[in-house]
Amino acid sequence: MRKAATDEIAPDEGDGPPGAGGPCADAKGAGPRGRGPRPAPAHAAVGARSGIPRRREALTGLAFVAPMLLLFIVFRFGPTLGAAFLSVTDYRLSGEWTFIGAGNYTRLLGDDLFWESLGVTAVYTALYVPMTVALALGTAVLLHRTLWMRGFFRGLFFLPYVTSIVLAAVIWKWIYEVQDGLLNASLRLLGAGPVDFLGSESLVLPSIAAASAWKGFGYSMLILLAGLQSIPREVTEAARIDGASGRQRFCWVTLPLLRPVLFFVLVIEAILGFQVFDAMYVMTAGGPVRASYSLVYFLYDSGFTFFDFGYASAVGLVLFAIVLVFSLIQRRLIGRDAD
Amino acid sequence: MAPPSTSAERAAAPAPAPGPVSQHPAATARPPRRAVARLGLPVLLALVAVVTVTPFAVMVLVAFAPAGGQTLPGAFDVGRATLDNFADVLAGADITRWAVNSLVYSLVSVLLILLFSSMAGYAFAKKRFPGREILFWSFLATLMVPFQATLIPYYILVSELGGVDTYWGLIVPTLANSQAVFLMRQFIVQLPDELFEAAKIDGASEWRIYTAVVLPLIRPVLATLGVFVFLWHWNDFLWPLVIGQSAEMRTLTVGLATLEGENVAINQVMAGATITVIPCLLVFGLLQRYLTDSIATSGLKS
């Protein structure tokens, strides 16, 4: 450990590039420079390198990247451009297509189903994000304060995250069941009437959001926990000595310091919220009366029920634009915080 | 070198600090609010634990209950527990085939993603070649594009190539994983160049350096990433749903969703769900171990 520490200090003397300049790191010449005037034979050798070894290095580099590069060209860059192209055509299952310009987009603007699905997605996201982040923050704070069996509880709370949304949906659909579901059976014991959680237009989105929050909060919990643990103990300790109560310390010291992490988690969950599909496909098939018919469900139906590939691609681009806006907001906020 | 050492510090720092101090006799003199707070913590933990575990408990209890005998978990009659639901669901649906599909999809993807992403990560970290920066950033930029946005061109591409209802059609498109490349590159960049130089001076070929030097050094990342990739694929839904159109090509996750949709008795659905979740839990055990392991090994590394 000690040896590593001195090594890390050395480049600083030489005003070395910050870690971000990763690729420059292999110019380990920075090491010898920091250590002073000692003649460095390795350095000289690097300098004497002629064009041939460098070309060899470039070729091996390209060869090692080649398989992944090929996959990315065919299956990432290609389809991304393809989506943009398809969205301005009327591409159908037969493979025939004509260029229709903004036709799909103007059609979207006049399509009630599209606006409905966008509204459902927005409401779902507005329910899902606070539920998930509140649960994640609450459990992260709990775990942070716990010393007894922390590892066990962290693992336990993370458990739903490693299962699939489909599994969560299947189980929660049963929990919400009107007749014998866990919730209604419990309500019956209390003498309360049955509640049709998934059959009611007003309850269906909160119910699905709660099931998704149960499944998804573990990821944000781990990130928030790491954020909490990176806050120096001295800071909260100083506030305590100054007489701040537990709640004051949390609201005025911990939360502001946690803000960048919290933003990150909020945006990540919002992006996930806008991509919701699996849970609705399994739990409600979009019902009742399309009360849980999300944007991706609309995309899926356009593509694989009506085989209207051009139209579905236009929906995909709308989703991309929304996610992009969220990512840019995130970058803005976190960037400003870093200043 | 920085991230591992800080994570090791994080793991080590909070543990010894406050525990014993608050156990001192002076603590008993504190006002009663402290006592409430100290009692509140375990109660809240237990509450969250119950909420987390209950759905799993419901699944297992309904799966083992006799047909039609599902009620509150408290009303579960251990004496009447049965394996019939598992036998019935295995007989009624091709679950074994679905499990094989899920295993092929997950394991082959893990192996190939680990191979290709470590190769690419090594090149991005340690080799100079023209276009390296642009390539790396364009790989990363694809993270911004949600999968669903490119679902249609994906499907058209794979179906034009004849990949619908095939293993390769299911697997190959998912191999272009930018997160894996990113993780590998970030890890390999920290390894000292001297290790590779020494092997080169000994006359090792580039491929030999990769297999004999790089791969052993990145074992912790391989393990961690492997677990994550396995879970992503095992739990994946939309892509297998779209590409596996015949019943034989369903994965377990897609199969479970169709069971749910086909009016199969709830006891059998839950038995199927229990089967689906077992590999996740097994792998989760591994993940836990590798989380702590990776901290330990990175501590050793520096």
Automatic annotation (TrEMBL), chain A:
Protein family: Belongs to the binding-protein-dependent transport system permease family.
GO cellular component: plasma membrane
Region (Disordered): 1-47
Subcellular location, record wording: Cell membrane
Record InterPro entries: ABC_transporter_permease (IPR051393), MetI-like (IPR000515), MetI-like_sf (IPR035906)
Keyword terms: Cell membrane, Membrane, Transmembrane, Transmembrane helix, Transport
Transmembrane segments: 58-78, 122-143, 155-175, 203-228, 249-274, 309-329
SUPFAM superfamilies assigned: MetI-like
Residue span, ABC transmembrane type-1 domain: 118-330
Pfam families to which the protein is assigned, alphabetical: BPD_transp_1
Membrane topology: Multi-pass membrane protein
Annotated protein name in UniProt: Sugar ABC transporter permease
GO biological process: transmembrane transport
Automatic annotation (TrEMBL), chain B:
Region (Disordered): 1-29
Domain of life: Bacteria
TM region positions: 39-64, 103-125, 134-156, 168-188, 209-232, 265-287
Major place of residence: membrane
Pfam families in the cross-refs: BPD_transp_1 (PF00528)
Bilayer disposition of the protein: Multi-pass membrane protein
InterPro entries, per the entry: MetI-like, MetI-like_sf
Keyword terms, alphabetized: Cell membrane, Membrane, Transmembrane, Transmembrane helix, Transport
GO process terms (BP): transmembrane transport
Protein name: Carbohydrate ABC transporter permease
